[in-house]
Amino acid sequence: MKKVAAGVHQLTIQRFVNVYFVETGTAGEWVLVDTGLPGSEKSIIAAADKLFYPGTHPEAIVLTHGHMDHSGSVQALAEHWKVPVLAHPLELPFLTARAVYPPADATVAGGGSLAFVARFFPPQSFQLSEFVQQLPANDTDVPFLPDWQWLHVPGHAPGQVALFREKDRTLLAGDAFATANHESVPELLLQLPKISIAGAPFNYNWQQVGESIKQLAALRPEAIGCGHGPAVAGQKFTEQLQTLADEFKVPAHGRYVVAPARTDENGVAYLPPAPHDPIRTKFAIAAAGLGALAGAALLIKRYQKHKQNEYPRPQSAEPKRQRTEEVVR
């Protein structure tokens, strides 16, 4: 666990995704921001018990967005702690099983190793109707966190939010950007600090991604925690974020580059056609070939086993008797 700023602690789960424990200002009270991958609940509960006191629970869980690596353990934690889950209204269709997020774009330029593994990600949707509530639409104050505001920063997810505390310029940015090179899974796992684009294969609207980065860079944050990458602080990273905003470019190609997916309060309203994916085609052909070989091997094995189980037919003794009789004559 790493301290991001006063009263803000980052827990990195499986060297990949971060969750945050944010103190409210009242002793012993806190809010959990994001919940990591499915199965992370034991690690999060243990960290909370160690950071605060055994049996502690947050006032609420705030989701920056509902992708699997941010909301994977939310149901288990909400059931364990009996606390509300708060998210932007535009995330609710995906968190209440009424819609599925736009599919990942494995063909996006610059997607790196993350784009390759994104081909095998399942469609993302969750049924959290019993727990999830929307953040107040007309109030940017974060419930239970009086010093914090939430900002709508879409592009990676329709209702993605970032949390900002102005008094010390602390920013929790979700996946609006990353503090490690998100195009390289090895660099991400090594937690090498670098302000970069987050999750390119999952960015469904590149214009919004650029606008959200510019909006957050204008805050001039001095301490930064994102969904992926180490917590960072200092002028160096403030300037890196500003450079990312100033030099932001839409990828050269990809499914959502020319025309973005469109979303509304009901989920996805429009998806651009999926581009040809030669790697997926090769995998399909290879899988079919392996399937055919496996089938042929099974048939051969069954045939051989069948032949082994056959008994040789006894030869008729009649011809031999006839030849013997002829010799005697």
Structural notes for this entry:
This protein is α+β, with helices and mostly antiparallel strands. The protein is built from ten helices and 17 strands. The strands form four sheets. A seven-stranded mixed sheet has the order 1-2-3-4-5-6-7, covered by helices on one side. A hairpin with a 3-residue loop joins strand 2 (8-13) and strand 3 (17-23).
The helix/strand order is: EEEEHEHHEHHEEEEEEHEHEEHEEHH
Helix content: 25-40%
Main sheet attributes: strand count, strand direction, barrel closure: 7 strands, mixed
The mean pLDDT is 87
Distance between the termini: 106 Å
Order of strands in the sheet with most strands:
1-2-3-4-5-6-7
What general form does the structure show? globular
| Number of distinct beta strands | 17
DSSP summary: helix tally:
10
Strand content: 15-25%
Structural class: alpha+beta
Low-confidence stretches are: 281-297, 310-329
Radius of gyration (CA) equals 29 Å
